[in-house]
Design goal:
The chain contains 25 helices and 12 strands. The chain has 535 residues and is an alpha/beta fold.
Length: 535
């Protein structure tokens, strides 16, 4: 439960705040009162205060001094100012010191409740971060001290086919490694598949948290006492091997309850969503076949999360869903309508998820069609793929995009944000000189003047000339001539247009002038250049 501190030298103000809001409903166990700075510091020193509501002018110091002290001695406390001073400098100073809000008396209690709720949200978020750090440290120490054992190596070798799944050969290996199982014991595999982490983790953090999942399963199912085993199958997937006595009754019901409790525990304490796939009790030589059946079930599950499945469970089938045409989404992407586009795609994904008719094939099809749409729009916008995808497609999120509908939705959202961000950046980064160059290219056949170009980019003609020369090394007239010569060379070499027509297309009304300028730039006249280079 939370702790609230109200600091104000006016007793009736404190009592009014205390009575005006149902603090218990917001989650506060205690509401503390202080009428000066000294009392407030005493309470803060002895009690972990989550939210403090504070006046500014009080005896023995002001609220700013108290807030500075709080930031040093009780940094987890979120503070709000409630004062009579409608002074911009006061509000500015409060924000600089880290106050979450600055409200004026008399305050409307719904507004006060809203501000305090915002503070509670921030407090809870910070507490969750601290819980994660503590959990991570604890299991890191356990993981670091853990050593591989013969039994774990045996099951790893069996699942990886290093040991053939023949009863005689398996017995030989067990005997050589001094691992003893009763002949009547059956083995029940459980595949634990992490579908997503609630937080973005580094590879190292992910390994530590997977160890936490493993450790928790071992404790819940008492694997060491029952000579069961849990091993890593791949990143995000664990395999538990439970030992079962032949003829055990009511096994599935008890196992389902235990696995549901395990999933709930992992979601709460280890910040992940997962599914558990349980096999049937089989002899040791049939374990590999059972494990492969569970892996296949996990592969085809793209919609359901935090659930328990048993081998043989059949997914609900319905009519096949056609892939969307994406024409509307393509236009929205071209227009940069990020929020509308993301919302529309999420609605579609939620709709197909509810039908439970989506499978891996459709998910892969959606992934490929989304990429095709992105490539098309980038080409339309003049962006090259590596400008957007250099890091994006190599990320772990892209690699797992087809793992589930939720993963695909996250990947598409990130991709759209990345692409539209590049669209905006490309537009903003186009310099004045780039705009001038673009104007020249679109008006190359016109009688271009420096003043026309300067008007287009809204600059003084002399200033444009200076920055153009500084960035390109050419004057505007030299650049125009250079571009005309480049285009003339291409048209002479690749087309059969008359040379007079080419001159006209490039803005030369006088053929002799065109020929003279061309020869000056290339050392040959247009006719000679065409003879030497015409395809």
């Amino acid at each position: 439960m939370l702790q609230l501190l109200i600091v104000d030298d006016e007793i009736h103000a404190v009592r009014g705040i205390r009575a005006g809001v149902q603090w218990e409903r917001l989650g506060f166990a205690d509401v503390h009162e202080a009428y000066n700075i000294r009392q407030a510091k005493s309470i803060l020193s002895s009690t972990q205060i989550d939210v403090m509501i504070c006046d500014i002018e009080m005896p023995e110091g002001d609220g700013f001094q108290l807030l500075a002290w709080v930031k040093e001695h009780s940094p987890q406390t979120e503070s709000l100012f409630l004062t009579c001073h409608a002074d911009f400098e006061y509000a500015q100073k409060a924000i600089q010191l880290g106050s979450l809000d600055y409200m004026l008396k008399p305050v409307r209690f719904p507004d006060l409740e809203k501000a305090v709720s915002k503070a509670i949200g921030k407090v809870e978020k910070e507490k969750e971060k601290l819980r994660f750090v503590d959990t991570y440290k604890h299991y890191y120490q356990l993981w670091e001290s853990s050593q591989p054992m013969f039994m774990e190596r045996f099951w790893q070798d069996l699942i990886n086919r290093s040991i053939p799944s023949r009863k005689e050969r398996i017995k030989e290996v067990l005997q050589s490694q001094k691992i003893v199982y009763d002949d009547a014991v059956l083995f029940l595999p459980v595949l634990i598949s992490v579908q997503r982490w609630h937080k973005e983790l580094t590879l190292r953090e992910e390994k530590i948290m997977e160890y936490a999942l493993r450790n928790s399963f071992e404790e819940l199912f008492a694997l060491k006492q029952s000579r069961g085993q849990i091993i890593q199958v791949k990143s995000g997937a664990l395999l538990a091997i439970l030992t079962v006595d032949e003829g055990a009754m009511g096994l599935n019901s008890r196992l389902a309850d235990d696995l549901k409790a395990y999933i709930a525990t992992c979601s709460r304490y280890f910040f992940c969503d997962q599914c558990c796939y349980a096999g049937s009790p089989v002899p040791i030589e049939q374990v590999l076949d059972m494990v492969e059946a569970l892996i296949e079930m996990d592969f085809h599950n793209v919609t359901r999360t935090n659930e328990v499945f048993f081998v043989g469970d059949k997914p609900q089938n319905g009519e096949a869903i056609p892939l969307p045409t994406m024409n509307g989404w393509t236009e929205m992407l071209k227009q940069g309508c990020k929020n509308d586009l993301i919302a529309d795609i999420r609605r579609y994904l939620e709709e197909i998820k509810r039908t439970e008719c989506i499978d891996v094939r459709l998910l892969h099809g959606l992934y490929e069609d989304f990429l095709q749409m992105i490539y098309h729009v980038m080409h339309y916008k003049g962006l090259r793929a590596h400008q957007v995808f250099s890091e994006m497609l190599l990320s772990r999120q892209a690699a797992s995009a087809t793992r589930s509908v939720a993963d695909l939705g996250q990947w598409v959202t990130k991709l759209i944000e990345e692409v539209i961000g590049h669209f905006h950046a490309a537009g903003e980064s186009q310099s004045l000189v780039d705009k001038a160059k673009s104007y020249i290219m679109h008006h190359i056949k016109d009688d271009l003047s420096r003043d026309d170009i300067a008007r287009h980019v809204s600059l003084n003609a002399d200033y444009l000339a200076r920055i153009f020369k500084k960035e390109t090394g050419l004057t505007i007239s030299e650049y125009v001539l250079q571009e005309r010569i480049v285009m003339a060379k291409e048209m002479l070499a690749k087309t059969d247009l008359p040379i007079t027509g080419i001159a006209y297309e490039l803005g030369y009304s006088n053929y002799s002038h065109f020929s003279k300028m061309f020869k000056k730039a290339t050392l040959v006249n247009p006719q000679e250049y065409r003879k030497l280079n015409h395809a």
